[in-house]
Amino acid sequence: MANKKMANKKMANKKPGPNHRDPVDRLDVARQTIGTSTEALDELRGILRIARIGSWRVSVDNLCTTWSDEMHELVGCDPRSFVPSLDALIQLLAKADRIKFQTAFASVVEHRQGGNIESRGNDTIGADRLFWTDMQPEYDPIGKIVAVRGVCQEITERKSAFERIRHLACHDPLTGLANRAHLSEQLDHILADASRRRESVAVLCFDLDGFKLINDLYGHAAGDEVLREMAKRLSAHIRETDIVARTGGDEFVVVQVAAQQPEAAQRLAARLLGELMGTMVLAGQSEVALSTSIGIAFYPDDATTPDDLLARADHALYGVKNDGRNNFAIYDRSMEREYQERRKLEHDLRLALQRGEFSLVYQPMLCTRRGTFKGFEALLRWNSLVHGLVSPEIFIGIAESIGIMGPLGAWVLRTACAEATRWVNPLKVAVNVSPIQIQQGNLAEIIAETLASTGLAPDRLEIEVTESLLIRNPERALETLRQIKALGVRIAMDDFGTGYSSLATLRAFPFDKLKVDRSFVKDLGEGSESLAIINAILGLGRGLRLPVVVEGVETEVQAAILRRCGCDEMQGYLLGRPSPIDRFDMITDPDGLMKNLCRSDTAPPGRTMAARPA
Ligand code: C2E
Ligand code: CA
Ligand code: CA
Predict the structure, then answer these.
(1) Which parts of 402-516 fold into alpha helices (H)?
(2) pLDDT of residue 610
(3) For residues 502 and 525, what is the distance between their CA atoms, to the nearest angstrom?
(4) Which of 299, 447, 494, 597 has its CA at a distance of 20 to 30 angstroms from the CA of residue 237?
């Protein structure tokens, strides 16, 4: 084009005028013009070949058909032997697409308007190949339609790339299940259908119990393995018409359609709880126990939009998580309040450290044989400005789940150690640590720093850990416990008897003490089952040369029985309720007895030296 313009310009400048060109000049121009158009044509052909675009033209009058070379190439016919025709064009398509093509062609002629179709190839040219054809009418100078021109492009790869992208956009790459966006979209249709048919739809939200722990303990690859297994088990237990999706980290949703509700959802939840659960072995090593909680909501009773329905099922789930997990619950309005309350609790708990709402109380531990106090267990208290006194049995679990147990545990450690350094009597201080703190891997470091900064002698600190820690990741826990022990700090196994740890694991861990759970003391009497258990644990302690502490001693009768059985240490309301440390001046300070006697608000220490309740 540019060449042509330049040539014209050159000619226009020549004298004596454009009509008096030199014949040689004219030949030049013609040659140049032909040259440039051949080049342009070649270029166009090249482009069409790369883009895999062929074209054809069919006259309307006699159906006389011509194909471009690229069209021959596209469908693999030899232009020297192949005679193009409309019929030949149609025969190239898969049988199922031929009528569609004919209809589109006829429509272009009849309505004088372009059209397009997507079609597959026949078995000869490839049934897996996809073509896109654009058709346009061609007119003569008076506007009569004379032909249909078609441009045909192979889109097999583009289409499959598109399908892959669409699949990626709608599915979770890890499990292959629908993702949240796709689920919402599907729910839209399902709810519209259900509304027409006046049917109910159940939405079941699943959340794996303790998934964060699995991730922390065994790493993300193991977590992924658990999620894939969960997806597989869920998919295997639902009907084809139902939907299963992964909507978040360890959250799954099942949508149950066309069933008699609420019975069907309840049956499904019960079945899933039973069959989904059980153990799974991670990549040939550790075995983990799977359990899940399920929240259920129904359309149209609980909500009418996908988002609301999912939110309600989630609130029901929240309730299950609070009430001990591994169960299912059906949404009801009262859950809304509980949900909001729990959210508020979480929110305020996050701020509690900053607001200085935590404190420690101390409960004395008595050496049974000598009748002297050996030390104190530090117990955390949250006195919230908004919620009042909240039990650690409630807030510790929440602190773990919202990820603040690390800093909170470090605070407890620092405060308890600093407190113990103030005691004139160098008694021990026992601090509870959550499994989360152990998993975080730097607990030994934190303890070492705390001892150094407070100046507390390591042998005065005792760490209490629960059995749950051992069941989940023995290797990691063992490593941390060994590091802690190497500092000279003692380690007690708390709540002994409530977990499942075997004698073998007990031997493998460097424990210094067993603390028998207080539940065994409650109905302790001569000949009781609890007594048999406590005796067995005491025997075990003697065998392993570990002192045994019994917690929750409330009565003289219980204390007398335990003394007779040879229990090493006791702890409980009888010997002192958990209280602020100044209530125990008489224990922490040898002169404290005198100080205490002078204080009018403190009961003088009796035979049991019981302190007043906090
Ligand atoms: P735990 O470690 O087993 O603590 C003993 C619990 O038994 C304490 O409850 C204590 O107040 C209670 N108790 C003591 N003597 C008696 C008794 O004679 N009768 C009865 N019925 N109960 C008695 P508390 O303080 O409510 O703590 C509950 C649990 O919260 C603790 O159980 C411990 O697992 C956890 N916890 C408390 N403080 C901390 C902490 O600083 N860090 C961590 N990680 N957990 C803590
Ligand atoms: Ca404890
Ligand atoms: Ca305990």
Answers:
(1) 405-421, 435-439, 443-454, 468-472, 474-486, 503-508
(2) 39
(3) 27
(4) 299
